[in-house]
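Blinded run. Sample ID left blank on purpose so nobody reads anything into the name before looking at the predicted structure. Input follows.
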Amino acid sequence: MENLIEVKNLYHRYEDGQKMRAVLKDINITFETGKLYAVVGSSGSGKTTLLSLLSGLDSVQDGDITYLDESINDIGYTKYRKEFVNVIFQSYNLINYMTAIQNVITAVDIKKVKVHNKKEKAYEILESLGIDKETADREVLKISGGEQQRVAIARALVHDSKVILADEPTGNLDDDTEDEIIDIFKDLASKGKCVIIVTHSQNVAKHADIIYEIKKGKIEIKKD
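Blinded prediction complete.
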């Protein structure tokens, strides 16, 4: 295991009426390879803000976030997002008029990843996540929510980055399907990925190796 991402003295503020409000205050945490993390907290606590900063979708205001000891600001946010992290959204963010396999192949094209026989590779990844070829060839609107989430995960695995960030990835799923998706994330962590999940689900959180809880802008470890 290695320290992959370090958050150092991180503050983040946003405009609240006539004044600036700090949603994250002096955050100092570390994320390692081979571990599953859960970030929990009440609505508005700053969970999604932290995810946006970790994924490079939002820029750091004060403090720093490093990837393998290099500031993501120095790496460049575009390069960081493209090469080092993958984000899975609650709403899946799939292209509805495409099939599952086309969605995964499109992710390859968007990332501009060099993949030998990308269609075969996409089928292979989907199969590893429980999506057979028949399902892969169906439009995503004609498959179940759990299958759509698997397609979203497959898109994140096309580029073999070490970091997977997931925003409420089981929020739209029933309990049994949630458990199946949790097992996928646990398996990815066991294979050396750093998996970070923002979640309201206590069921998801209890499976994490480490739980970070955000309260009033501060963060503390609930499970280590």
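Unblinding after everyone has recorded impressions. The chain is about 35% helix and 30% strand.
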